[in-house]
């Protein structure tokens, strides 16, 4: 097959899977919250309420499209588009499974094996701020503006700590490519064992980056009605909400790749030998493992959301600048010291 | 201090462990995780209903006797007893050949209960000397129109095909009490009525 065709297929499949996961993440969120609050949750549409996301989607599309009279019309439309676009773009560099060999062709289950994958992710994630900022500003609404300002300041502050946490990881792995980071964890030692503090900083920042509880100040319903998407309706609101769930999915995938071995799982080669799996079959099992881990982290995101109340704004900024940033710097320093001690630099 | 669970509020600086957030967050997450396995407080409503209390007072039923004739004689005691004035009726005389429809010579040609006025106190049931009206464990369904809450005989009278069980409201004690109509509850009830009339 043409390499281009294969890439197109992978892109389309990834696109569909991302949307499906985001769609069912909305459903899972409602179910998880229900179960944690001793309720049953949505169960009307289809068996166990499994068609609920479709019903929600239809509802979103059928709703009246409303653009406020004093809003900047074009920016108002561009906002959610950017949010969704950047959310979907991040998944391109994540390796979803090992290589599959068909004949003499080697297919990587990854859209693009960039050697600067980490930089790419950071670049795209920073662009996500624009979606929220433009949407909030274009709405011409005080609540939206406050939400947008909060979102942008929060995302920019936490991006620094996040980047510094990753620098320590880059120091130990010596690469910026996600594929290589995952391959290095092939032996069974996940990066979490090497970088526990870095992981902690990274996951806290990931929560802040995805604007989820306890860092959901940009859209806190109780104070800001809906924050940056107060004025949005119909599918444009749907795009914003969807972007949040896609971000959650992708950040789970990134966390898994960085710190939990990506598609690798412990004793995988022993496992493959024991069951006599070919390398292709092992790749498929690995893909399932990858998604299993990702789903666990999506659950973890929800679990945290339905446990912890929202931070106050000053607490949020204190945590970002006075705690996470020094911790991340210390982490880099300690990592450097240990590596120097081991004679790796 | 009724529950012995009140806690003294102390305004002090947080300790290091509290400031670190992580242990507190972790214990909180254990609590929410435990709730996954707990018994649900809600039920899948239309398919699954909670059991009613045996004394639950819901939508009324006008009973028929074993032969299928209406028990109500349109005496109007229920309407008089009703504190919400929800019951209206028009009495009529039984014609020849209608014996299988109405048990006694007089019957209610119109019997209406306004379910929006009704407070489901059950005094009509207390007042009825003919064991004709009972409150059941059925819920009055909601509606968009006020007219639809005025229940006529078409909705109130039970049919032979669909008998309404009122045994929960007819416990042996109740039956025993209702037997002695002259001396006990009719009298006390009439006292109630006269008191009400005197008040007005």
Description:
The complex is a heterodimer of chains A (345) and B (200). With 345 residues, chain A is mostly helical. Chain A has one domain. Chain A contains 13 helices and two strands, in the order αααββαααααααααα. Chain A has helices at 3-36, 52-62, 73-89, 117-138, 142-173, 178-184, 191-194, 196-209, 221-224, 234-259, 268-275, 279-305, 313-341; strands spanning 100-102, 105-107. A two-stranded antiparallel sheet of chain A has the order 1-2. In chain A, helix 2 (52-62) packs across helix 10 (234-259). The longest helix of chain A is centred in the N-terminal third of the chain and has 34 residues, at 3-36. The N and C termini of chain A lie far apart (44 Å). Chain B has 200 residues and is of the alpha+beta class. Chain B has one domain (60-199): 2-Layer Sandwich (Alpha-Beta Plaits). Helix content of chain B is 28%, strand content 12%. Chain B contains seven helices and five strands. A three-stranded antiparallel beta sheet of chain B has the order 2-3-5. The longest helix of chain B has 15 residues, at 22-36. The mean pLDDT of chain B is 83. Chains A and B meet through loops of A and helix 2 of B.
Structural class computed from helices and strand pairing of chain B: alpha+beta
In round numbers, the mean pLDDT of chain A is 85
Strand order of the largest sheet of chain B: 2-3-5
- Helix content range of chain A: 55-70%
CA-based gyration radius of chain B: 27 Å
Structural class by helix and strand composition of chain A? mainly alpha
The overall pLDDT average of chain B reads: 83
In short:
The complex is a heterodimer of chains A (345) and B (200). Chain A has 345 residues and is mainly alpha-helical.
Please give the structural blueprint:
The complex is a heterodimer of chains A (345) and B (200).
Chain A: H1 3-36, H2 52-62, H3 73-89, E1 100-102, E2 105-107, H4 117-138, H5 142-173, H6 178-184, H7 191-194, H8 196-209, H9 221-224, H10 234-259, H11 268-275, H12 279-305, H13 313-341
Antiparallel strand pairs in A: 1-2
Helix pairs in contact in A: 1-10, 1-12, 2-10, 3-4, 3-10, 4-5, 5-8, 5-13, 8-10, 8-13, 10-12
Chain B: H1 16-19, H2 22-36, E1 60-62, H3 77-81, E2 87-93, E3 106-114, H4 123-127, E4 133-135, E5 150-151, H5 153-156, H6 172-179, H7 185-199
Antiparallel strand pairs in B: 1-4, 2-3, 3-5
């Amino acid at each position: 097959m043409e390499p281009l065709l294969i890439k197109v297929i992978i892109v389309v499949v990834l696109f569909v899977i991302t949307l499906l996961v985001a769609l069912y993440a909305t459903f899972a969120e409602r179910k998880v919250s229900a179960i944690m609050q001793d309720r049953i949750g949505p169960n009307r549409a289809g068996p166990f309420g499994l068609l609920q996301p479709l019903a929600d989607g239809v509802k979103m599309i059928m709703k009246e499209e409303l653009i406020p009279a004093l809003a900047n019309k074009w920016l108002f439309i561009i906002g959610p588009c950017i949010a969704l676009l950047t959310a979907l773009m991040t998944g391109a560099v994540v390796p979803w499974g090992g290589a599959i060999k068909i004949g003499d062709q080697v297919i990587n289950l990854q859209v693009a094996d960039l050697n600067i994958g980490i930089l790419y992710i950071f670049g795209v994630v920073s662009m996500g701020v624009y979606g929220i900022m433009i949407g909030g500003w274009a709405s011409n609404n005080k609540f939206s503006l406050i939400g947008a300002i909060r979102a942008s300041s929060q995302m920019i502050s936490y991006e620094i700590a996040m980047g510094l946490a990753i620098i320590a990881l880059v120091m130990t792995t010596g690469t910026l490519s996600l594929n290589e980071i995952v391959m290095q964890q092939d032996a069974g030692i996940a990066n979490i064992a090497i970088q526990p503090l870095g992981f902690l900083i990274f996951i806290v920042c990931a929560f802040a980056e995805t604007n989820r509880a306890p860092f959901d100040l940009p859209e806190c319903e109780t104070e800001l009605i809906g924050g940056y998407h107060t004025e949005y309706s119909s599918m444009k609101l749907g795009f914003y909400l969807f972007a949040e769930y896609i971000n959650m999915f992708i950040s789970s995938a990134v966390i898994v790749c960085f710190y939990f071995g990506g598609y690798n799982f412990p004793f995988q080669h022993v496992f493959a030998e024991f069951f006599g799996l070919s390398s292709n079959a092992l790749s498929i099992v690995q893909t399932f493992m990858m998604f299993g881990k990702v789903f666990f982290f999506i659950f973890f995101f929800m679990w945290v959301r339905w446990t912890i109340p929202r931070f106050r704004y000053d607490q949020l900024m204190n945590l970002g600048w006075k705690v996470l940033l020094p911790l991340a710097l210390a982490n880099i320093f300690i990592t450097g010291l240990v590596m120097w001690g081991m004679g790796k630099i | 201090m009724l529950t012995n669970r009140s806690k003294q509020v102390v305004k002090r600086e947080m300790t290091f462990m509290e400031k670190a957030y992580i242990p507190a967050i972790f214990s909180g997450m254990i609590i929410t995780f435990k709730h996954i396995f707990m018994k649900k407080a809600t039920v899948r409503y239309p398919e699954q209903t909670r059991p009613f209390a045996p004394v639950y007072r819901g939508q009324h039923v006008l009973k028929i006797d074993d032969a299928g004739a209406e028990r109500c004689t349109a005496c109007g005691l229920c309407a008089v007893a009703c504190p919400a004035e929800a019951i209206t009726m028009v009495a009529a005389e039984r014609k020849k050949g209608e014996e299988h429809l109405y048990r006694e010579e007089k019957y209610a040609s119109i019997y209406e209960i306004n379910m929006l006025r009704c407070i489901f106190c059950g005094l009509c049931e207390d007042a009825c000397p003919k064991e004709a009206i009972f409150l059941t464990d059925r819920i009055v369904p909601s509606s968009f129109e006020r007219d639809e809450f005025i229940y006529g005989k078409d909705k109130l009278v039970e049919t032979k095909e669909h008998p309404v069980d009122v045994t929960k409201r007819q416990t042996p004690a109740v039956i025993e009490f209702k037997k002695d109509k002259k001396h006990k509850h009719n009298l006390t009830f009439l006292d109630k009525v006269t008191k009400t009339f005197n008040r007005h």
